[in-house]
TrEMBL record:
UniProt protein name: Histidine phosphatase family protein
CDD domains: HP_PGM_like
Claim: Hydrolase is one of the keywords in the record: yes
Stored PANTHER family: FRUCTOSE-2,6-BISPHOSPHATASE TIGAR (PTHR46517:SF1)
Pfam families: His_Phos_1
GO term, biological process aspect, one: negative regulation of glycolytic process
Residues the UniProt record annotates as site (Transition state stabilizer): H174
Active-site residue list: H11 (tele-phosphohistidine intermediate), E88 (proton donor/acceptor)
UniProt-listed Gene3D superfamilies: Phosphoglycerate mutase-like
Residues that, per the record, bind substrate: 10-17, 60, 88-91, 175-176
Organism: Weissella muntiaci
Keyword Transmembrane set for record: no
Keywords, sorted A to Z: Hydrolase
Length: 218
């Protein structure tokens, strides 16, 4: 059984983050704080030997990955692999909208008005279903669509023929995706109401297609 050590990093802060806009497949550049945060994360991981590096194909994830690799002491020869499978959840016609307005619309049928209320009453899987129903065009990913895509990202990593047992892999991901992984694979040990910080590191182990969460939001 091949076990891979995944260092899953949430991308650096973007302008959509500070503008409180939903940012799934849509994109916004890193802020200066986001760039510096990626540098700090890179310095924290500077002595980890990465055998491979992956990110979603959004520029915020790619830029974060490249900054971290630049700070790494042994990343020479590591080529960043990007994939749409690793993107954040797709929010359909709500992409780029004010988050507070969107969650009000999603929660309205249940007399809920904030994302906090929603996560205190529903799983993230259920919230995806509610969002697709609330999306006027119904383009937002439901839970099945989301996981069918994301699982292909982990299959891509697991099937890399150049990776060997106990290799370290850098993976630049997104806030709701990291929370969703915690919900699905964390065995209830982590509080999914606590969002990962931009630039934070969550350690996971990938073995035979199964994920184990080692630590969160470090």
């Amino acid at each position: 059984m091949t076990k891979l050590n995944l260092y899953v990093v949430r991308h650096g802060q973007t302008y959509f983050n500070i503008y409180n806009k939903l940012q799934g497949w849509s994109n916004a550049p890193l802020t200066e704080k986001g760039i510096q945060g990626a540098v700090t994360t890179g310095q924290k991981l500077a002595n980890i030997h990465f055998s491979a590096a992956y990110s979603s194909d959004t520029t915020r994830a790619q830029d974060t990955a490249n900054i971290i690799l630049k700070e790494n002491n042994s990343a020479e020869g590591v080529t960043l692999i990007t994939s749409p499978f690793i993107r954040e959840q797709f929010y359909g016609s709500f992409e780029g909208d004010d988050m507070d307005v969107v969650w009000e619309k999603v929660g309205a049928p249940y007399n809920m008005h904030t994302f906090k209320e929603l996560v205190e009453n529903f799983s993230l899987a259920k919230i995806r279903e509610l969002m697709k129903a609330a999306d006027p065009r119904h383009d937002a990913e439901n839970n099945t669509e989301y996981w069918q895509r994301v699982e292909q990202g982990f299959t891509l990593i697991a099937n890399n023929p150049e990776l060997h047992d106990n290799d370290n892999v850098l993976l630049i991901s997104h806030g709701n995706t990291i929370l969703s992984l915690l919900e699905r694979y964390g065995d209830g040990k982590f509080d999914t109401r606590v969002r990962p910080d931009n630039g934070s590191v969550t350690k996971m182990e990938l073995a035979d297609g199964d994920l184990t969460i080692i630590s969160y939001n470090q």
